[in-house]
Each structure stands twice: as C-alpha cells, then as structure tokens.
Amino acid sequence: MLRYLLLEALRHFARHGYEIIKWFEERTYGKYSPSPGNVYPTLQLLQDEGLIQVQKQVGRSIYSLTERGRKELASQEDWLAAFWERYARPVPSYTTLPEVSFLQEELSDLTRVVEQGWPCAVRHGDSEAILRMRYALEGCQNEIRSIISQCSASRPVCDEARPPEARE
Predict the structure, then answer these.
(1) Which of 7, 41, 120, 126 is most buried when burial is the number of CB atoms within 10 A of its CB?
(2) How far apart are CA 141 and CA 159, in angstroms?
(3) Rg of the Cα trace of the chain?
C-alpha cells in the first residue's frame, strides 16, 4: 500500500522525505502519517525498482517519479481513488469532537442492536418485527439525509456528505 501512496505523493512534485510525510498528514487530515522507518526503506525499494529517482541537494535527497513510476501509478488509479475516498475527509474541530465521538458510538450501538435483534425476529418467524425494524431504519436514514441536505445547502463544502441523489 505505502509504495503506491509514495508514488502518489510524487505525482506532481519532487519532494524530500519529510515533505512526503507532511503531505500525507495534510492530505489525510492527520488520519494517516507513515513513520520515517517505513517511508525511507520503501523509497529505497522504489528507487531500486526504477520507479523513482533521487537527486542529492544540500544534505537532502529529493525524490521524483520516473516514467516507469508514472505507469505503475496509473495502474493503481482505482485503488488510490478508494483510499482517498476513505482517508481524505476532514477531522472534526476541537469544538465538535465530543459530539462526533458520541455520534460514532451511537452508530456502533445501533448497528450492534440491529444485528442482535433481527436474528431473534427471524428465529421466531416474526415478519412484522422485521418490517418494523426496516421502517425504523429507513425513517432514521431519511431524517439524517434531510439534516445533511440542510447542512449542504447552507455550506457547499459539505456536498460530499450528501447522498448522490441529493447532489443534483
């Protein structure tokens, strides 16, 4: 995984190792920060494979992609898109962090309750309970979509959180 991310970090600009690590931190909003102990050996491996080249400048090594590295990177576009979809989201601000943590805990609890509840209803053949659970979840989803749409309408930067059908 790291090899493709390092190639991605060098896609547009040559960088030195510290810049690459900082680029990861900024691009993932602090959610992913590879250690120098992982970055530098992987950079050496990429150099050995001819995917990057290195120029020495005043005590630093500046890394850049080779043509072969660009081709390797192009072969991983789907994987990279999936990675950035997952990691390139802003982290909550200090003031919203407690509520976001609570929201995540509640979502985990809801998932646990539903996963424990529906098998019981299935075992007892209670199709009415299963249908009521489904309707409750659909109602919850619709209410949350409404909240997201209101947030997105007033703040265009939130558009990525809206369901695709609400973005039009």
Answers:
(1) 7
(2) 17
(3) 23
Whether residue 162 contacts residue 149, with contact meaning beta carbons closer than 8 Å, is answered with: yes
What is the distance in angstroms between the CA of the first residue and the CA of the last residue of the chain? 34
Distance CA 92, CA 54 (A): 37
pLDDT digits (tens, 9 = 90+) for 2-45: 999 999 999 999 999 999 999 888 888 777 788 999 999 999 99
CB burial of residue 20 (10 Å; 0-12, 13-18, 19+): buried
Exposure string of 143-168, with b = 16+ CB inside 10 Å and e = fewer, is eeeeebbeebeeeeeeeebbeeeeee
Q: In the sheet where 60-65 sits, what is the strand order?
A: 15-16, 60-65, 52-57
Q: ∠162-166-168 over CA atoms, to 5°?
A: 115
